[in-house]
Amino acid sequence: MAEEIRGQATKYAVVTGTNKGIGFEICRQLASQGVVVVLTARNEKRGVEAVEKLKGLIGLAKENVVFQQLDVMDPSTIASLTCRYAVVTGANKGIGFEICRQLASQGVVVVLTARNETRGVEAVEKLKGLIGLAKENVVFQQLDVMDPSTIASLTEFIKTQFGRLDILVNNAGIGGVTADADALRPKQESTGVSSLDLNKVAGALHNPNGNLEKVN
User: Fold this and answer.
1) Superfamily for 12-74?
2) What's the gap between Cα 72 and its chain centre?
3) Do domains 12-74 and 83-174 have the same CATH topology?
4) Which DSSP category does 211 fall into?
5) Which GO terms describe its cellular component (predicted)?
């Protein structure tokens, strides 16, 4: 996803029943060709082990292959595979708004955040109009990155509505755009204030079988 946002075409593949045999070999061949592979299996433990084995075989980077639990007879696991959730901070205009547009146009459910509620709601409506989004594809949540109470509210909203977080983009103006758990650790910027403490959101809500995506 990060590569596509930067304008580079990246291919993604989902392969079912891939913790062993032919499925595993298909994953190996796809990943070795630069395809980002989602390796799926019913058994979580075996699936995770297969991912680690695959990475060891061809020296893959962490984000090149991920595991997602999937039982093809269980609709809930199918829904979990197909839906992805993103939070973008400082997203009512500029770069943040454009990131929201690109993510939403690729089928990601986007939580657009901003300090100003009126401007945030207006941005959501504008976004829906631009790409004809369904009501549930993009939502607004008020967030002031320096206000712990709004971060707590955002965390609870994501937990209640989606149950997890797949993509986190910090575009709120304190040290630029970052988006993974390690990059979101509290640190002192040149302004003398703590950067956004969304690492708690990331740590608590990211998909344990996948990776929180980094968007630069």
Assistant:
1) NAD(P)-binding Rossmann-like Domain (3.40.50.720)
2) 23
3) yes
4) -
5) membrane
Q: Kindly report the CATH number that applies to the domain delimited by 83-174.
A: 3.40.50.720
Task: List per-block mean pLDDT (blocks of 10 residues) for the chain, which spans 216 residues.
Answer: 44 85 90 85 90 81 74 78 84 90 84 95 91 74 89 87 82 49 36 43 56 47
What is the chain's alpha carbon radius of gyration, rounded to the nearest angstrom?
18
| Helix axes 117-131 and 94-105, enclosed angle (nearest 10) | 40
Domains of the chain: which residue ranges? Answer: 12-74, 83-174
Residue where the block lists tokens 């809930």: 76
Cα 3 to Cα 35, 102, 138, 209: the distances in Å are: 12, 12, 21, 21
Q: How far is CA 47 from the centre of its chain?
A: 20
